[in-house]
Amino acid sequence: MTILLALLASALAGGFGSMVGIGGGLIIVPVLSQMLGYDIKVAIGASLIGVIAGSISAAPRFLASGLADRRLAVTLLVATVTGGLTGGVTASYFDSRVLAALFAVMLLLVAAQMSWQLWRPRRVDQVGAIEVGGPTIDHFDSDYIEPRTGQVVTYGVQRLRAGATLSFVAGSVSGLLGVGGGSINVPTMNVVMRVPLRVATTTSTVMLGATAMTSAMVNASAGTLDPLLAAPVVLGVLLGSRVGARLSLRVPQAVLQVAFILVALFFAAQTIGRLL
Amino acid sequence: MTTRIRAPKRWTRLVYHVGSLLGGAALAVAVLLEVLGRPSNPGSLVDPAAIVAGIAGATSWGWAALGVWLVIITPAVGLMTTLAEFRAIADRRATLTTLTVLLLLAGSLVVALLRGHGS
Lengths: 276, 119
Description:
Chain A has 276 residues and is mostly helical. Chain A has helices at residues 2-20, 25-35, 40-64, 70-93, 96-119, 160-177, 182-192, 197-222, 227-247, 253-275; strands at residues 142-145, 152-155. Chain A has a two-stranded antiparallel ribbon with strand order 1-2. Chain A is globular and about 50 Å long. Chain A starts with a helix and ends with a helix. In chain B, helix 2 crosses helix 3 (60-88). The longest helix of chain B is centred in the middle third of the chain and has 29 residues, at 60-88. The termini of chain B are far apart. The mean pLDDT of chain B is 90. The chains are: A mainly alpha (276), B mainly alpha (119). The interface between A and B is large, with 55 and 60 residues.
């Protein structure tokens, strides 16, 4: 019965996550730990496998379309993989209550970031990055075909050092809390490194698999990765994200973002309430 | 701005496809066995003998463990094919960077196994 509940909950979380564009981890971990009663460390272990599965199932499509930038991905992976290992090892030293508190903070930060995106004046173009002058790094000069218009968009990469530092933070958060880290990686690439949003989101998705892999291995050896929980989580995420991607075209993005903010605030409040 | 030559990506895409299909299939078998009420007999995920015995004995844990490892190793195999594809276009910098990531992943595996044996 629990396996079916985990499958259903992960399908809903994966579907909702893909509709909002944040992946399922931020919802799966609180659902497994607060609603189904799993220890948060076990919930994080299962969520990491869901994150990897989501990444490897989306990667072939993003690579084929030419949207994901592999040169940029492998460069930032040096930082995120190191961060993932650091986060995974650190998590095993933390008490479950500390991890739950950190997760609540993460939910509040993502809800705040999403609220800011909703209500601030739109400065970032949907196709290209913010047009600001500055030296780009020749090695990363690239282009892609914008799917909506068929137009070739040429772009460069700026401020690699700052981007790599923030990617290390994204990897650490992913390893520590079992989330993808896309909520840090995407703004890092788009706003800090001036990479177009479409390239940033697809490149981040391709990177998530290798990022989460390091902390998943740490969880496997520490005994906090339960394959019998990971199985329904992976199947649920894969099923839910496919349905969610189709449904997202019919529901206004703003409505989904408001719904996510409310869900994140609910789980954060519930976690804080239990800790106090 | 001059766009650099793109590396081929056929093999990397194939690896991701096969990895997600095989991993998903093994995990689906595990869920099915669990729903059918087969014994789970959990063991250690870092004990290959326990996993092989679990698969052979058609236990839900054994198949779930197989699926979990297939999902975990797929990004690493994908990076190996990416390395070969960067080498094919003689992109030395990208090849070395990919090699660095693979070495970091190998180091992570060693750290994980050492911690598993230590605990």
